[in-house]
Amino acid sequence: MRRPWWGPPLDDDQRAVLDLVDDLTAERLHRAGDEQPDDVDRARETLAAQGLWTLGVEAERGGGGADLRTTLVALARLAGTWPALAWASVQAHAAAMVPSARDGVDRIHGGAPVAVAPVDADGPGDRLAATLDRIDPAGRDPLVVLLSGDTALAVPPENVAFGPPVRRTGLDGALTVGCAVDVALTDDVVVRGPAVARARSFLDVGAAAMAAGIAESAAQAAHTYSDVREQFGAPLTALPTVRASLSAQETTVRGLLATSVAADIDRPAEAAAAVAPAFEAAIDVAAAAVQSHGGYGYMAEYGVEGLLRDAVSLRAAVDATASLRVAADALAGGGA
What we know:
By secondary structure, this protein is α+β, with helices and mostly antiparallel strands. It contains 10 helices and 9 strands.
């Protein structure tokens, strides 16, 4: 039985993609942790084989050719089951928008791990040396793509030194590491132009959709538990306070899904401004879902505590605060 969809109405293509994600997560995409990197690799390759890994990249560039709304529906759904894999797919989409001559898109569309991260690289110079505290590629030795203003750098593997694993609260399978980059800014590394801004904006709209998907999964788990769990001879849903909490969770989720899947990648300030509020709302919903389970909400087998940890870890991974600063700077400067 497939999960219900609490977002806005779907057309036939969007429903087909949603059903495909549900079928894959039920049958083949079994969530794996960092101690099972081979399983994480197979999961990425499964998404690529099904056309979901870079679903929203233009068909002429080797992607699935889906429109943005359909892509965000798929990412929201995947995030409700395996957020680390969904975030890795968001990064793959962004990287595929700005390929360099040296690193074409074939590897990316095939499911290779990619880490996309904004960096501060203002000012003149012919070389970039930077340290990234964390990247979350859901894979080992990923291609690293850095975004700075209207410039993207597809960093050759020999110019990246990966550090030890970084501990997280959630995001099973993200394979989080730090890395140091030292690269010459040559023509086969640097990409400039509007595609870079769209890639940066895709990180934001993808992250907001993922926050909505995590919240949906948590709220639905709370509804299911409250329907079957009895107290004093009646389901928990017989209690007015429980019904009020569940209703508030559902209302928040429906609003999150409606706004996130309708995002416009060509309005980057709005996209950036939506990220932090989406994660705050998702964390609130997930925390309420934990409380809806009572003491069982803190037990791993019920899943909702993991969704709360995922929401917290993903907020840090996407640097929602930085997105908010980008939005504020754009608004202060009269940007879109």
